[in-house]
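ugh ok so i messed up the first submission bc i forgot one of the chains. this is the corrected input, ALL of the components this time, i swear. 1436 residues overall. if the numbers dont match what u have on ur side tell me asap before i send this to the collaborators (the ones from the other lab, u know who)
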Amino acid sequence: MKIDRLVPPGELTGFPPTDQWDDWVEYDPKLWPEKVPRRYTIVPTSCFNCEAACGLLAYVDKDTMEVRKFEGNPVHPASRGKNCAKGPATINQINDPERILYPLKRAGRRGEGKWEQVSWDDVLNDIASRLRRALKEGRHNEIMYHVGRPGHERYMERILRAWGVDGHNSHTTICSAGARLGYALWSGYDRPSPDHTHARFILLLSAHLESGHYFNPHAQRIIEGKLKGAKLAVMDPRLSNTASVADYWLPTWPGSEAAILLAMARVLLVENLYDADFVRRWTNWEAYMKAERGEENSSFETFIETLKEHYADFTPRFAEEESGIPADRILEIARAIGEARGKFASHLWRGPASGNLGGWQVARALQLLTVLTGSVGTKGGTLPHGWNKFKPKLPSEPPPQKQWNELLYPPEYPLGHYEMSILLPYFLQEGRGKLDLYFTRVYNPIWTNPDGHAWMDVLSDESKVGLHVALTPTWSETAYYADYVLPMGLAGERHDIQSQETHAGVWVSFRQPVLRAAMDRLGKKVEFTYEANPGEVWEEDEFWNELSWRVDPDGSMGIRKHFESPYRPGEKMTVDEYYRHIFENSVPGLPEKAEQEGLSPLDYMKKYGAFEIENSVYELHESELSPAELEGTQIEAGTGRILKDGNPVGVQVDDKSHRGFNTPSKKLEIYSETMKEWGWPEYVLPGYIRSQVHRDAIHRDQGEFALVPTFRLPTLIHTRSANAKWLNEISHRNPIWMNVQDAARAGFKSGDLLRVSTAIGYLVNRVWVTDAIAPGVIACSHHLGRWRLNKNEGSRWGAVRVEFDRTKEGVLMRYAEPPAPFKSADPDTSRIWWSDSGVHQNLAFPVQADPVSGNNCWHQKVKVEKAWNVDRYGDVFVSPARSREVIREWLAKTRPSTGNLRRPLWLDRPFRPAPEAFFREDE
Amino acid sequence: MNYAFIIDNRKCIGCHACTVACKAEHDTPIGVNRTWVKYIEKGSFPSTHRAFSVMRCNHCADAPCVPICPVTALFTRDNGIVDFDSQRCIGCKACMQACPYDAIHIDPNSKTAAKCNYCAHRVEVGLEPPCVNVCPTHAIISGDRDNPQSEIAQLQALHPVQVRKPEKGTNPKLYYIHGDEASLSPGATSGGEYMWSDLPPIGVDPGAWRAALERQTKELDQPAYQMKQEGARKVYATAEPHRGSWARSVSSHLITKSIAAGVMLVLAPLILLLPRLGSEILVPGAFLSLAFLGITLSLLLYKLERPDRFMWVLTRPQWKSWLTRGAYTMNVYSMLLVAVLLTQLIRGRPPTWLLSATALAAAFSALYSAFLFNQAKGRDLWQTPVLPLHRLTHAVVAGAAALAVASLFAGSIRVLDPWLTRILAGGLALNLLALGAEFNSRHPTEDGEVAALLLLTGRFRFHFWFGVFICGNLLPVTMLAQGLLVPAAVLALIGLAIFDEIFVRAGQAIPLA
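and heres the new structure output, hopefully the right one now
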């Protein structure tokens, strides 16, 4: 059979045309040059390796009904058909010979590795009855859902609110809490959305050409911008791939970033390179002058002079002393940023904001540059993320929960962003509460969080965690300690919708279980996704629906009604109906677009997998309120705020009513009254806080270093990729990067075994001597060091089997069985040629919660020496007693809320409870 | 139509998406890659730079892998794509010796050669290769160079481009914009630990290789690789499949073939020139040749990844390949040997034409390896013009030596002793001259130079000086002067075998990518 060409000879096109996706024929690449046609149905879905939710197309072989491969989805507005290495590697995860295919129930002690296969029916009934009992007994706060990789827009909000539970836990305090607080204080939006494509200057305090929110979509646009002439600068003590491609690499001493940014801000002010009109119109400078300087009617010029005075110490010379970056380089870049005028795009997500005490001020200082250059919300500037993200309306909106869970939002962290998951084990240990039912979903705190031993400790203790249900597509260190391990679908084995602020547009994508969709197209109806998935792999959507249905069998608890079909009253809502309702009712423009193609909105999304709601969203703060919106509003004297029922809905600027930002003042808050009100008056302005690894704290002459343990590799994704053979083949060790000068002084050469001592223990790893890191700093990727406890668990592509040796002094983890070839259905398992899976460094880190944002301050002050005779590669030793001491030291830095209010009402909080829950009951 | 690739290094971010997308398209096993990304670092802090280079088949306009393939498994399409057919491949790995870019590997599932084929199965229907589709920054540009409207033609018109090893004359069509010279020249980087992976184990021991290179670099007046002075370090790369792809069975077939050819090369002219000599000695001689020819063929068969397809060299010949030509030469030679043997046994002294033809076939059987090695464009060491002389002297020495040793078992040969002594002595002298000519001159390329140095001062220096020079040549000559023919012959044979072994190994020890 000969297949027709899609384009004339000599021309090539990227993807099969969408009208042929249903029935696509291409030649078998293995049998080529013999022309053997293979018939596929191409189903769009989303990648689930990182958070970007790039589009994927699954090629489902119509004869075998197996997924042959994943390619990019060309109609996806963010990823535009392109992927990083992790996209096509999805097929490895689907075909991983060691994946979990059936629900497992613990048969021995927790962590013992004894499992028995159980039926889903039994699982659901068991969990439902436990959940019902807790709800009926008012033990709502003993139920917790802990998710690692969220996305799934608002799905769990409906579930947890239907249960009335304030139990959503996340990973943000090991990740982005610092940056979120910094951004939120400025605009009420907790993430940046840079418009790289149109920028003139791009400053990254991140590594977006290889990782991060949102690697692939951003990398595309950063390079586009760069080719159009934008200059790219990267701050990173380590030469990331991103820094290597940049025009300027600024190998900053970790934690000194805010000093540089403020020095740059000062240059903009002093050299008159700032956008005076924008700053005057859109910052709350008047509030600052009034509250801090006592000047009621200050002129803007006076404010600028005051600001110059305030930042007078931040000279380029000072920044050089702090950071190691030459003053003239700082000056040069500051001027280039100033010249970008309104087209300054920047990004910070984890990096310095998650590494350092006061990291949240780095985000604030970075945003100060955006504000000064008038680049907020502009074409080529940096937008508030909320403008570029779609939020669905749900078929059923249960009311917000009336609970406030202090295990997650303790009084010590009224400004935390958000759940204090890093402290959960300590709170359980010290008896602040207990968990009756703990769901982990694609979350692996034992491995990912600092001080994993504390997690092992509480997860092994049935008096602290009654039932631990791990919902996971793959084995994880945390799942080893679960009571139930429930296999959930991988990227193309379940439903969800995603929307991310990848660029100055708005889009929504639709993930679907590709085999189910393919069967659907071929006329084979299935009721539940697991019928189409491998083994008995479920999807979360159906799991939560089924579970909630069983919790409230007669509807008397008020839960059931939120799970009833919006189309068939009284009956259980199907997944199709859920998404149908959203696509019909809350995606602007989708019903019309679908109509044009003669499709229902749901069928449109099933066909294309993504929809672009808007492609060019700028300067929404400037948009004026309509007469209808202005009706019944009042203008607040002095501030110009437009109030409706006491709540600000806009702001008057130069006599016009603008929408403004999401802050109390509706302006960009250079001055944060909130900080003052909540006990941090010294931080009302963007500032510089000395890090726990500040230069002066590191005694380099005594073998001390600042360890940067937070960098990602382009090929792996946290703890979700050990099941991808092609990714582990590329990268499987995480040596310690050390500058050549440091290594020469200490007499280390690449490959030498080092002992790296932290505040609570040590780890033993090899050193990689390189010019690609600043002297005095060492770095180690957190992407490796996966382990397994028992022979029948874990992914052998990328996890070593370890053994624990527990003594009075502490716990030693040691390599017992490195990755090695083994026999399986996949012949590639017998070809594993590497014998390394890296060193699990997070285990040796204490929890160091930033007293304001709550972010774990990842960077470590360490002592480095040649490994001792007793040391072996991969050893990690930890003293639990020491780790508890360190936590107490950091907790002592907090300033707990004093009044009844638990958290500023204006600040965002996921799964926001009812307003009354924000107030503590009187003692 | 002329398909080519541009790698635009202004845009490449080294993310490995192309590597994995390619694996997904072709279901490429662990351990081998059709495309991969090499990382190097250069410069001192803070002026450090990391360069990424996408590596793959260069789809050369004059692809050296095509003419060397004995069975047309590799071929150039009309549209300029160098494609391959795993259904035809016999797994002889000659293409891996010919490719100067290390772009070809043996697929562990099919045991046949594989490489980037520009996804010809997709191009056929008008689709881009997946590596182009997947690339987040559109750093891989495919297209028809002949079409001036194509993106690739326009890019190339605007930007200067680099290619890998232009001196090889292969006319590669994998172009780099802002190609990094130190990254594209494999010899320019020093080795070391990789940034996030083990050193791939395939091929020779990387540690030993590195040590040898460092030693050589030190021993030279000037570094063999000029660019080494930039201090570039290789920090990530994949396995080098070419390393040691021709293993011991290849090097050992050289000595057995030298014997098989040499015996008649010595014997036939002696019979022709010395009418007094009884032609009965042709019987043990032909037997000896046939036996060693048999061993040679077995070794060749053994080195194939697909021995089941051995006969395809004869039934599906590709006439430009010296492997094919060699196989036919040996075939003719073996038939002539049988003819000589039968004639001698049935009728007596074979006619002059038969003996002359046999001698000629023997000479060709010995010589063709030289042309095959020359055809292996990827091996700079093997490009030496002295190689035919080497093979011929090897055959003469091996033939005389083998006959001398055989005389222990077949007394009739002993009449040749005086002649064998002279031939052996002459052959060894010639061999020393050839060695001198080879190793006294500088090799035209840095890679050739380093490979030669591996023999003279590097990893194989003991083998070379003690094994080949002293034991294999000097000692036998001295012994011959003392009349110790058989011991001299044994030592000479050992010397030849050692030389073949280290010559084959040193040639393959050079990094190609």
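quick check: Residues 248-273 of chain B form the longest helix (26 residues). that seems consistent at least. The longest strand of chain B covers residues 35-42.
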